[in-house]
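Task 17 of the worksheet. Students: predict the tertiary structure of the chain below and write it out as structure tokens. Keep your answer in the requested format; marks are given for formatting as well as content.
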Amino acid sequence: MREHLAAAHGLTLRPWRPEDRDAVLAAFAPEVISRQAAPPIRTAADAGEWIEQRARQWADGHAYAWAVLAPGGAPVANVAVGAFDPVHQTGWFSYWTDAAQHGRGYASAAARAVAAWAFADLGLFRLELGHRLDNPASCAVALRAGFAVEGRQRGALNYDGVRHDVETHARLATDPPPVESESAQDSADAAASSRDFSVDPMRADDAGAVLAVYRQGIDTGDATFETAVPDWAAFDAARLPGHRFVARADGRILGWVACSPISTRAAYAGVVEHSVYVAPEARGRGVGRVLLDALIASTEAAGIWTVQSGVFPENTASLALHRAAGFRVVGVRSLIGHTDGRFRDVLLIERRAVGAGFETGAAAPASVAVGRVDGQ
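Model answer:
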């Protein structure tokens, strides 16, 4: 069994050592991390005992906690696997990062490496994890490490008398390995600072290129239940004309975003369902995020208060993109549709307009400019 691993960003991983005591003490200083330690870690002696306990667990085969070292050699994060069920070949996965190192992609890179190790060296089939629903950063790490959202545990945690829901994720040994890419924030920053494409309203003469990108998305098997591309007349009729955009570069369409009303009922006039597709060769350039930002700006300006969509749990890249753009997972629609002879779960995601006001009894907008309504 390996005791040294390498990961993206020049990271190395090894078991915790006594000389890491100061790094552990500093990492557990923030309250959000200190809650993960029982008993609390407040002194160097506490940190030393924490390390000794991890060493005993490693030696006994009860759990494996990896110290994640930055390129300079300092520990900056922890990734652990434990709570094994040998019959079902499952384990519980956890991680934390020193607050000073947040946003560098260290946790997700290390998590990918440890998950691969757990499948290969420990022979596990399923890894499970959970995070507070109000912790989007932890969710982003899980998604970028290939852990699909599976559901919500209501009121599972109690901190200072306040109950918190937990979102659960899992990754199977048979799942495709996640793509190692920059963090969602890095992608957004890159798109904003060095964008080499433009975003413009979709035109009729974009039809062929838009439908070609749609076809590429369908072919992945994880973008939609659809198996055939509609003709342009059907595509055009089903989508609101004022809220569809394309990304262009050198005369090519890199991706598109569009939305449709979910209903003809007046009560849902401000609710739309969207789709965003990016050509394979354009991924990793921030195209999807910029397209989503354009859609959000146009729908909010029109008084639309909810943008929603359905995403397969296996499509972790799309989930990470939407989380970064302010979407949340509402729930799991279990086995809601089928394709290729099998039923599949779908995650319902949504984003509410900023400042629209959703408190009980809030006044509804006087009008919503959604244009043509072809909904259900």
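Marker's comment: The radius of gyration is 23 Å. Residues 5-180 form a domain with the Aminopeptidase fold (CATH 3.40.630.30).
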